[in-house]
Design goal:
This protein has 547 residues and is of the alpha/beta class. It contains 20 helices and 20 strands. Strands 13-14-19-20-17-16-15-18 form an 8-stranded mixed β-sheet. It has a 5-stranded parallel β-sheet with strand order 3-2-4-5-6, with helices on both faces. Strand 15 (486-494) and strand 16 (497-502) form a beta hairpin. Helix 5 runs antiparallel to helix 10 (217-226). The relative contact order is 0.11.
Length: 547
C-alpha cells in the first residue's frame, strides 16, 4: 500500500507480534505499541520514570573540574558571563544556570547572540567578554570555537552537546558527553539544558542554595523536546517530570509568572504534552532568536512579575507571527527549487532573499517531505549561511566533516548542522556533497504504521493507552494508525493546513502535498495519529498508485 506522499506504508503489527505475557500485563493494543518501539525486554523501564533512575552527574567528562571552577568564581565574587545559544536549548540552559547562580549571590550576567553575530563565539565577542568577565561559561556552544577560546585570556567552561571536532579547545574545561568514549550512550543524547540541570543541581547543593532545583525541570523539558533529543530513559524521566512542573504552573498550583504567560500565549490548557512543547511552546521561544532578539525569550522564562511577564509574552507572540509569515514565504520558494532537484542525493538550495533565522525550519520540513538531507542557504555578497537537516539513519555531520576545508565555520550533530562558506563555493559544495551522500536511498523512506485502528473504534481506553507512552519524541514517535475506508465529506483549506471530515469524524492535515490530492466524495484509507484526542491526518491511500 502506498500513500499520495509517495511513501510505502509498512504496518508493523503485520510482522511484529507481542508475547502473551506482555498482552496479559498491558492489553493487546498497548503491548503492540511497546513491541513496535523495541521495548519488549525493557517495558518496565518505559513506565518507571522516577528521578532516582537518572544517570549520575559524575559520568559527565570534566564535570568536577567545571563545578569547582564555578564554585571558586561564586565564592570569590568573580564576574561570570553566561553565553548561551539563541535557540530553545541554549536559552533554557542559560535560564537554568542563571537562576541557580543568582540565587547563590553570584555576580552573573547572561548574554545571547543573534543571527547577525551568528552561532557561537567569534573573536570580537570573546574579546569583549575577556574585558568584562573573569569566567566565561558557554551553553550549547563552544565545542567548535577552538581558536577563539585558545587565544583568549579568560577562563572558559564549555557546557555543550554538539559533536566534537578532531581538535578540542585546550584552554577550556569541556563538559560535553560526546568528548569521551567512556560516557554511556544515554548521556551522550542529553540536551545542553539537561547538562545545565545536572550542573545546577550540584552547584545548588554545594553552595547551600535554598531552592528546589526540581522546579527547573520545566526548562529541561522545553530544551530537550525543542532540540529533538532521543526519548531514551534518561530523557523520558527529565521530560516527564518537566511536563508535571508545566502542568502545575498551568493549573495555578506553582507560581512561575513567566512560564504561566508563555503557556497562556501558546493556548495550552492544564494538560501539557511533549507535542505542545514541540509545536506550540518551543517555536515561540525560538522565534525571537530567529527574527528578533533572543533576550526576549530568556527574560520571559525567568520573569517573576506577572504584568511584565504578560507584556513580554505578547511581544513574543507578535514576533512569532512575523516568524511564521517569513517561514511560509521562504518555504514556498524553497519548495519549488527542491522539487526540481528531488533526484539528488543531497539537496542544496540558496537565495539572496532568504532570512537566515528560518533556514533550519525550512530545511527540516523539506528533508521530512523528500526523505533525504537538505541544506538551505541565505546567500550574501561574500558569504552564505546555511542550515542542514537530515533523516533518520543518515549522519550529516560525518559526511560534512569531509568538506570542512570549505567552511568558514560550522558545527552540529548527526541530524542537523549549521555552516558558513564563501558564496562563490555554493555550486562546488552542492556538487561535492551530492557525491558524498550517494549512499542515501533514492526511494522515500517508508511510513511506519503501528497497527490498524478504525477511527470508529477509538475509545477512551485507547486514548489512555496512547497517553501512557508519553512523553513522545525522537525514537519514541507518536503512534500512527491505519483507518478503515472513509469518505471525504468536507475539505476546508486555511493557509498551510486543511480541516477535513472523514466519515463522521473531523481531522486536520498540515501538509499541502497530502490534502491537495483529495477530492470530495473520495473513499480512501488514511494513516493518522491521535494527539490530545484530535485526529491528525498523515497520509492518504493512493488508489491510482501514482505516488
Amino acid at each position: 500500500m502506498r500513500g499520495v506522499s509517495g511513501k510505502e506504508w509498512y504496518v508493523l503489527s503485520y510482522s511484529l507480534k507481542p508475547p502473551a505475557q506482555l498482552i496479559e500485563t498491558y492489553g493487546e493494543f498497548l503491548a503492540q505499541l511497546i513491541v513496535n518501539r523495541g521495548y519488549e525486554d525493557s517495558h518496565r523501564e518505559l513506565f518507571d520514570l522516577k528521578l532516582k533512575h537518572l544517570l549520575p552527574y559524575n559520568l559527565l567528562p570534566n564535570v568536577e573540574e567545571g563545578v569547582e571552577r564555578i564554585l571558586r568564581a561564586v565564592k570569590s565574587g568573580e564576574r561570570i558571563v553566561l553565553f548561551g545559544d539563541y535557540d530553545v536549548d541554549g536559552i533554557t540552559g542559560t535560564a537554568i544556570l542563571y537562576q541557580v547562580l543568582k540565587n547563590a549571590g553570584a555576580r552573573v550576567v547572561p548574554v545571547l547572540p543573534n543571527r547577525g553575530t551568528g552561532y557561537g563565539l567569534n573573536g570580537e565577542l570573546i574579546s569583549i567578554f575577556s574585558k568584562y568577565g573573569d569566567l566565561l561559561i558557554t551553553i550549547d556552544n563552544g565545542t567548535s570555537a577552538v581558536d577563539e577560546i585558545d587565544r583568549t585570556g579568560i577562563d572558559v567552561v564549555v557546557i555543550d552537546h554538539h559533536n566534537v571536532p578532531e581538535r578540542k579547545p585546550e584552554k577550556a574545561i569541556l563538559i560535553n558527553p560526546k568528548a569521551s568514549e567512556g560516557v554511556p550512550k544515554e548521556m551522550k543524547e542529553l540536551s545542553s539544558s539537561a547538562i545545565c540541570f545536572y550542573m545546577g543541581a550540584v552547584l545548588a547543593k554545594r553552595l547551600g542554595v535554598d531552592m528546589d532545583v526540581r522546579l527547573l525541570l520545566d526548562l529541561v523539558a522545553l530544551g530537550t523536546v525543542g532540540d529533538v533529543m532521543p526519548m531514551n530513559r534518561t530523557n523520558r524521566i527529565l521530560v516527564s517530570k518537566g511536563l508535571s512542573v508545566l502542568e502545575s504552573v498551568a493549573n495555578g498550583s506553582l507560581d512561575k509568572p513567566g512560564i504561566k504567560a508563555l503557556l497562556s500565549i501558546s493556548r495550552i490548557g492544564e494538560k501539557v504534552s511533549a507535542k505542545d512543547i514541540a509545536y506550540s511552546i518551543a517555536p515561540r521561544i525560538n522565534a525571537p532568536g530567529r527574527v528578533s532578539n533572543p533576550k526576549l525569550a530568556l527574560e520571559l522564562l525567568i520573569e517573576e512579575n506577572p504584568k511584565r511577564a504578560e507584556l513580554l509574552a505578547r511581544k513574543i507572540e507578535r514576533v512569532n507571527l512575523k516568524r511564521r509569515a517569513i517561514t511560509d514565504r521562504v518555504y514556498k520558494e524553497a519548495y519549488q527549487k527542491a522539487i526540481e532537484l528531488s533526484n539528488k542525493n543531497f539537496i542544496s538550495l540558496w537565495s539572496r532573499g532568504w532570512h537566515v533565522g528560518v533556514l533550519g525550519i525550512v530545511a527540516g520540513r523539506l528533508s521530512n517531505l523528500l526523505g533525504k538531507p537538505v541544506a538551505v542557504f541565505s546567500k550574501g555578497k561574500n558569504h552564505a549561511v546555511g542550515s542542514v537537516r537530515s533523516i533518520e539513519g543518515i549522519d550529516v555531520y560525518e559526511g560534512l566533516s569531509r568538506l570542512s576545508h570549505m567552511f568558514v565555520k560550522w558545527g552540529g550533530h548527526m541530524q542537523a548542522a549549521g555552516l558558513t562558506l564563501e558564496s562563490r563555493l555554493l555550486e562546488t559544495f552542492s556538487r561535492d556533497v551530492d557525491e558524498l551522500f550517494s549512499h542515501v536511498p533514492r526511494e522515500l523512506p517508508p511510513l511506519y504504521i503501528d497497527t490498524e485502528l478504525p477511527i470508529s473504534q477509538i475509545t477512551a481506553q485507547i486514548l489512555k493507552s496512547i497517553e501512557r507512552l508519553e512523553p513522545y519524541g525522537e525514537k519514541n514517535p507518536i503512534p500512527v494508525f491505519l483507518s478503515e475506508e472513509l469518505q471525504i465529506r468536507d475539505i476546508q483549506v486555511r493557509g498551510n493546513r486543511a480541516k477535513l471530515k472523514l466519515g463522521s469524524r473531523e481531522a486536520v492535515c498540515w501538509e499541502p502535498l497530502i490534502f491537495e490530492n483529495l477530492k470530495l466524495g473520495d473513499r480512501v484509507r488514511v494513516a493518522y495519529s491521535i494527539v490530545d484526542g484530535d485526529i491528525n491526518l498523515i497520509d492518504v491511500e493512493d488508489k491510482n498508485g501514482a505516488g
